[in-house]
Design brief:
BirA Bifunctional Protein, domain 2, five-stranded mixed sheet, 21 strands, binds zinc ion
C-alpha cells in the first residue's frame, strides 16, 4: 500500500478531549476516528488490526470446538423480560419502534438470543455438548464513555456459549477454554502481563474468572499472588484476604484492564426459556451453560496502552497492519522497485511515498508502529543496501535485498 493512497492521514493535531494513550495514538496515526464519545470508526488501517485480532480469537475458539454464528444485536423486549434483565441491566439501550410501538433493545450480551435458538436444536443428550461463538458489534449505554476504545458505547466482542448435560461437563470445558484464552493473549503479545483472576460469580456461582491485563490506566484493581501467579479481584479480597488457589497471603496490588471474562452460567438462562433435553432414561433435564467473552476492540486498545512507547504504537507481529514500513528518502525509483520486489515475495508493505522530510517520515513510522522499518536512502545504498530496524529496538543494520527478504520472512515465521 502506498501511503499517499491511504484513505486516512496521520496528524499531529488532536482534540483536547483526548485523555488516554490509545485514543491519542490511534487517532493520530489514522487507525480510528471518533464519531461521538464511545463510538468509533475503524479506518482501513485500524480495521486491518482489529480483523487480525478477531482472526486469532476465531482460530483459537474453532480449535476448542466452537462453531461460529452471528446473532442479532436488535432484540425484542419480551426475551429480556423473560430473564428479568429488562428491568435490571442498567446499560441496556432500550427504545420503542416508531411504527409498531413495541419495546426493543440494542444489546451487549446475547443469552436472550442464543438460548431460544439453542432450544430448537438441543433436544436430547445426544445433542450435547455444543459450543457456538460470534464476533459482533455490541452496545452498552455508558454513563460516561472514556479511555478511547477501551470502554465504548459501541464495541466489538467475541462471545462463546457452551451447552452441557451437567455441571461436570461444563467444568471440563471451562478448563479447556481457560487454556485457549491464554493462547489468545500470548498471540496478541500481552500473554506475560495478562492474568487469570478470581472474580465474584454473582448470583449463579461462587467465582467467575476474568482475564486482567496489567496497566496503569486499568479501571480494576487486582491482587497478584506471588506464589501461584493467579490474581484476585478486589471484591474477593474484601471477603477473604488470602489467595483462593493456594491460601498464600503474599498478594501484590496492581491496576489492570479486564480483557476477558468467563462464567459458569449453570441453568440461569436455560430455566426461563425452558431449554431442556431428554437424558438416556428419557427424563427431562435443564441444559447447563457457560459463557466466555473477549472484547476484541478493547484488546486492540489494551495492546496500544501497554506496548507503546513515547514515540507511538508498537504492534506485536501477529496483529500489525503491515509486515514492513518502507521509507524512502529520495531514491523514488529504487524504492518503487524494492516495494514491488517485497510484495512479489508475499510481504505486506506500507510504503511512505510522500514528499516529506526524513524527520517527518521516520516520526510517523514510529507512530504507526509496524514491527519492521526499512529505509532506503543515498546513505544506505552507499553502505550496500537497505537499513533494517525493528520498531522495538534501536539497532539498525544494512542488508542487501536477498538478506532483507530473508530477514523479514524469518521475523514473521
Ligand atoms: Zn496463590
Amino acid at each position: 500500500m502506498r501511503f499517499s493512497k491511504l484513505f486516512s492521514k496521520t496528524t499531529r493535531n488532536i482534540s483536547k478531549e483526548v485523555e488516554s494513550k490509545n485514543h491519542e495514538f490511534l487517532v493520530r496515526a489514522g487507525y480510528v476516528d471518533q464519531l461521538m464519545s464511545g463510538v468509533y470508526t475503524y479506518l482501513p488501517l485500524g480495521l486491518k488490526v482489529l480483523s487480525k485480532i478477531e482472526n486469532i480469537i476465531r482460530e483459537e475458539m474453532s480449535e476448542i470446538g466452537g462453531e461460529e454464528l452471528l446473532l442479532p444485536a436488535l432484540h425484542p423486549a419480551g426475551n429480556w423480560k423473560k430473564t428479568g434483565r429488562w428491568e435490571t441491566v442498567d446499560d441496556l439501550y432500550r427504545f420503542k419502534s416508531y411504527y409498531t410501538k413495541t419495546d426493543l433493545a440494542l444489546v451487549g450480551t446475547h443469552e436472550e438470543a442464543i438460548v431460544p435458538v439453542a432450544k430448537k436444536f438441543i433436544l436430547s443428550y445426544k445433542d450435547l455438548p455444543k459450543y457456538v461463538f460470534q464476533i459482533q458489534t455490541k452496545f452498552r449505554d455508558e454513563k460516561r464513555a472514556k479511555s478511547g476504545i477501551l470502554r465504548g458505547r459501541e464495541f466489538r466482542m467475541k462471545d462463546l456459549y457452551s451447552f452441557h448435560a451437567d455441571e461436570k461437563d461444563l467444568d471440563r470445558y471451562y478448563e479447556i477454554a481457560i487454556k485457549a484464552y491464554k493462547k489468545v493473549f500470548e498471540r496478541l503479545g500481552i500473554g506475560d502481563i495478562t492474568y487469570l483472576t478470581f472474580a465474584s460469580g454473582g448470583t449463579f456461582s461462587k467465582f467467575s474468572h476474568e482475564f486482567q491485563t496489567k496497566s496503569p490506566v486499568g479501571e480494576d484493581t487486582i491482587y497478584l499472588c506471588e506464589k501461584c501467579k493467579v490474581a484476585i479481584n478486589r471484591e474477593i479480597i474484601e471477603e477473604q484476604s488470602v489467595c483462593p488457589e493456594c491460601e498464600s497471603d503474599k498478594l501484590k496490588e496492581m491496576k489492570a484492564i479486564e480483557t476477558g471474562n468467563i462464567f459458569k452460567l449453570g441453568t440461569k438462562f436455560s430455566e426461563p426459556f425452558n431449554l431442556k433435553y431428554l437424558d438416556k432414561s428419557g427424563k427431562e433435564n435443564l441444559a447447563v451453560m457457560g459463557c466466555f467473552g473477549i472484547g476484541s476492540s478493547r484488546a486492540m486498545g489494551t495492546i496500544v496502552e501497554v506496548l507503546s512507547d513515547v514515540k507511538g504504537i508498537v504492534w506485536p507481529k501477529e496483529v500489525a497492519p503491515y509486515d514492513a514500513h518502507l521509507v524512502n528518502l529520495g531514491k523514488d525509483k529504487e524504492a518503487e522497485k524494492l516495494y514491488n520486489d517485497l510484495q512479489k515475495e508475499g510481504i505486506q508493505v506500507l510504503w511512505d511515498d510522500r514528499e516529506e522530510s526524513a524527520g517527518t517520515k521516520l516520526a510517523y513510522a514510529d507512530l504507526l508502529g509496524i514491527p519492521i522499518r526499512v529505509v532506503i536512502s543515498d546513505k544506505s545504498l552507499k553502505a550496500g543496501g537497505y537499513e533494517f530496524k525493528l520498531r522495538n529496538q534501536e539497532k539498525t543494520e544494512i542488508l542487501d535485498e536477498n538478506k532483507l527478504i530473508k530477514k523479514i520472512k524469518e521475523y514473521y515465521v
